[in-house]
Specification:
heterodimer; A: about 260 residues; Rossmann fold; six-stranded mixed beta sheet; four-stranded antiparallel beta sheet; 9 helices; globular; B: ABC transporter involved in vitamin B12 uptake, BtuC; two-stranded antiparallel sheet; about 0% strand; binds adenosine-5'-triphosphate; binds magnesium ion
């Protein structure tokens, strides 16, 4: 893979994160290179969301180091991380359903048009760019005024991804973008991930679903109870091995026996 | 991917023009305004409600509602409430009276100081809500009592009464007082009267002068606040932040919207509006009373809800809220002109509030696709 010739964009070294007595992360190392899709797998509560929130400047790590393009970084807010080029599409709240696609797309970075001493939001530019960027991702909006609430789950994810790409993300973090989606919508999001990767952006793709990960992933890191169980390259690991790692081994083997290998 | 494009094209037909018109926040208020005017033109058309003086009468009452509704609307869209608006009105009026009459300071100084104090109290409301994460309902309910208590306590302590008069005399020649208590457009009304278009006084010291001799500054403030707030909300970056803060504060924070600042500013703006209301009222009556502004917070919230805003935040319209306020003013004064028992106004309020909330819930479902 050509992407391994590149230096990592973000490198996370021995990250620990404690919430009071809870140790959510206990020494996790991870890196992401341009143009690759690095999948982060793990069971519920493994610490995936906590980990990427640390990368995105939402949480400060209790211990450990974050390198951005080789330099030590200390993000004090999501805004800092965003400015640097780390964009995140969160699991729970990517969009505001009552607001229009355009208003959501530009939220926090509204284009400005000056009229005398006054600054207005430039809706013409905003609408045109939104429609164009969404079309590039394969979604034809009825109108840029359409409320995000009327979009399907997959389309919402795509708006969020298109937004991140448009604003010059170098690393795009997707927290379970496919968890609530049906087959078709999942396929759409996975193909969007593929499109974005080809533009040279590094993607961190979080999922529970081994098949989704294997469909687009170049590397796979499994988290379990706040620790990494290792990183594997595409082709070096079988779906079964990955599945086992995620479930922490033994129990899964037992379960698979009783279910006849359908999980 | 091309198939998804086709799928979306099919859906265009499903959105009829009617449905599209329905999902405007102002719709209910526009329909309500038309209905209310039609009603009173039919039932009170010849009662003087629609001559110059009658129009001025209900416009003034409506303008009062508009001023506080605009503040409440912006705050509600930002996802918060302020139940202390009514107490703030009483407090601000009393503050002006104490500074100017009791302490004898210039009226302009009393007004500016009162604005500073009230906006600061608004900021305190906001900071407490943002810092503690408590519902603004509770925090501002506390201020409803705190401010009302002080409004009764201070004048009793200092003057041994709860109404302080004599502000009109103190305001004579003051440069700032006319901004709240004055009238504009006098010459236009003189001209209209000379053309016989509006009535003039027949007798008394003002014989020959037009009955309506200008537009009160109260109405100018109402229109000004409405226009500025509407433009800020719909056409600026800050307006987008207001919607975002109320729509989903966490999502907004993640993309770098300064949610705390937006909310605190909206609390301050609401306090500003309440103080404008109080100052205009004090200048008009020439006195401040400890019971002024009672229940105004609820009337403001009802006007905003009639205007199509969602109680949960993130959605609404300043124009809608202003129309809600107009409906209020017209109905309250219209019942008077029509000779109907005024207590029925409360019944009307309750009924229309219910209708508005039900309509809004329906609209919300359409927008968010909830079932
Ligand atoms: N703000 C917080 N305060 C306290 N504990 C937290 C906090 N955030 C996360 N945790 C704890 O850290 C652990 C890891 O949570 P995290 O959300 O990162 O899991 P996850 O891998 O994303 O799970 P899922 O697949 O369900 O999204 C959990 O035990 C959780 O309870
Ligand atoms: Mg998670």
């Amino acid at each position: 893979m050509s992407s391994y010739d590149h230096a990592p964009i973000v490198e996370m070294r021995d990250i620990e994160k404690h919430f009071g007595p809870v140790i959510a992360l206990n020494g996790v190392s991870f890196d992401i290179r341009p143009g690759e899709c690095h999948c982060l797998l793990g069971d519920n509560g493994a610490g995936k969301s906590t980990f990427i929130k640390t990368m995105a400047g939402v949480h400060k790590p209790t211990r450990g180091e974050i390198l951005f393009e080789g330099k030590h970084m200390d993000f004090s807010s999501p805004r800092d991380a965003m400015e640097a080029g780390i964009a995140t599409v969160y699991q729970d709240l990517a969009m505001i359903p009552l607001m229009s696609v355009t208003r959501n797309f530009w939220m926090g970075r509204e284009p400005i048009k000056r009229v005398g001493p006054f600054k207005f939001m430039d809706f013409k530019t905003a609408n045109d760019v939104t429609m164009h960027e969404m079309r590039k991702m394969g979604i034809n909006l009825r109108s840029p005024d359409q409320a995000v609430g009327t979009l399907s789950g997959g389309e919402r994810q795509t708006v969020a991804i298109a937004r991140a790409v448009y604003f010059g993300a170098k690393v795009l973090i997707l927290d379970e973008p496919t968890s609530a989606l049906g087959v078709r919508q999942t396929a759409n999001v996975l193909s969007t991930i593929d499109k974005v990767r080809k533009t040279g952006i590094g993607i961190v793709f979080i999922t529970h679903n081994v098949r989704h990960a294997l469909a687009v992933g170049d590397r796979f890191t499994v988290l379990n109870r706040g620790k990494t169980l290792g990183t594997a390259q595409r082709g070096q690991i079988t779906p079964e091995e990955l599945q086992d790692l995620m479930a922490g081994g033994q129990e899964m083997v037992a379960l698979e026996g009783s279910l006849g290998g359908t999980v | 991917m091309s198939s998804s494009g086709a799928a979306i094209d099919e859906r265009i037909k499903q959105t009829s023009g009617l449905r599209k018109a329905l999902i405007r926040p102002e719709l209910g208020a526009i329909v309500g305004t038309i209905a209310v005017f039609a009603f009173f033109i039919i039932f009170a058309g010849d009662s003087g409600m629609f001559n110059a003086q009658g129009v001025l009468n209900w416009s003034t009452v409506s303008a009062q509602f508009v001023i506080i509704a605009v503040g409440a609307c912006m705050l509600m869209i930002a996802g918060e409430f302020d139940l202390s608006v009514g107490s703030m009105i009483g407090f601000a009026g009393m503050s002006i009276a104490i500074f100017s009459v009791t302490l004898g300071w210039p009226v302009w100084m009393a007004i500016l100081l009162t604005f500073a104090i009230c906006i600061a109290i608004g900021a305190v409301n906001g900071v407490i809500v943002v810092r503690t994460g408590l519902p603004s309902f509770i925090v501002t309910l506390a201020f409803l009592f705190i401010l009302r208590g002080f409004t009764i306590f201070f004048p009793q302590l200092i003057e041994r009464r709860t109404i302080i008069g004599g502000i009109s005399e103190r305001a004579v020649g003051d440069w700032l007082a006319p901004v709240f208590g004055g009238k504009v457009g006098g010459p236009i009304f003189d001209w209209l009267a000379s053309q016989g278009l509006i009535a003039v006084f027949e007798r008394g010291t003002r014989a020959g002068e037009p009955i309506v001799n200008g537009i009160p500054m109260l109405i100018v403030w109402a229109l000004g606040l409405m226009i500025v707030a509407h433009i800020v909300l719909t056409r600026t970056r800050f307006g987008n932040w207001v919607f975002a803060a109320g729509g989903d504060a966490q999502a907004a924070r993640y993309v770098g919207v300064p949610v705390a600042r937006v909310k605190i500013l909206m609390f301050m703006f609401t306090a500003f509006c309440a103080t404008v209301f109080a100052t205009c009222q004090v200048m008009e009556f020439g006195s401040a009373g400890a019971d002024r502004g009672l229940l105004k917070e609820f009337e403001a919230i009802i006007a905003v809800v009639i205007g199509g805003a969602l109680l949960t935040g993130g959605y609404g319209s300043v124009i809608g809220a202003a129309l809600g306020a107009l409906i209020f003013g017209v109905v309250q004064q219209g019942l008077f002109f029509a000779g109907v028992e005024s207590s029925l106004f409360r019944v009307f309020l309750g009924v229309i509030l219910l209708f508005a909330v039900i309509l809004n819930t329906y609209i919300r479902r359409i927008i968010t696709g909830e079932r």
